[in-house]
Amino acid sequence: MTKRNTIQRQLVIAAVRFLADHPTAEEVYDRITMEYPDISKGTVYRNLNSLVESGLLGKVSVLSGADRFDHILTRHYHIKCTHCGMFMNVEDMDYIEGLDEKVGEVTGFKMEDHDIVFNGVCPECQKLEAKEKN
User: Which of 37, 69, 111, 112 holds its CA 20 to 30 A away from the CA of 99?
Assistant: First the structure.
C-alpha cells in the first residue's frame, strides 16, 4: 500500500534535509513548529517512522542517545563527538560491503542490518581541551 504524500510528510522530509546534521525527532519537531506551530509531536514522530519504513529517510540508532534521522540513503558511517555531541557522516571512507553476511557467518545470526557509529573527540573540542590545559 502506497502512503499518501501528505503535507505533514513533506514538512518532515524538508526539515530533515534542512537540518542536514542527522537531527533527532525532537529537533525535527522544533524546526517544523517554527513555521507550523499547530503540528503535533505525535504527527511528526509517526511521519518520521513511516518515512523510515518507506525507505525515504534513514534512521541511525545511537547507543545511549536519541535516534537520528538521515536524508542520505546510501550506506555510510557516522561519528559522534563524546564531548559536544556533534554527529556527522564519516566522509571519504568506503562502506564495507558484505559486513552483515560476514558477521552472520561468524555468529550464526540471520542478519537484518547494522548501524556503526564511531565515537571520539572532534577537532574543535580537542582545541578547547588543549587551551584549558595551557
Answer: 69
In whole angstroms, what is the distance from residue 75 CA to residue 55 CA? 12
- Rounded CA-CA distance 10/102 in Å is 38
In order along its 134 residues, the chain shows pLDDT tens digits of 446 668 999 999 999 999 988 999 999 999 999 999 999 999 999 999 999 999 999 999 888 789 999 999 998 999 999 999 899 999 888 899 899 999 999 999 999 888 889 999 999 999 999 888 87
70 in helix, strand or coil?
Answer: strand
CA–CA separation, 12 vs 17, rounded Å? 9
Using CA atoms, how far apart are residues 117 and 77, in angstroms rounded to an integer?
6
Residue 31, C-alpha cell as written in the block? 524546526
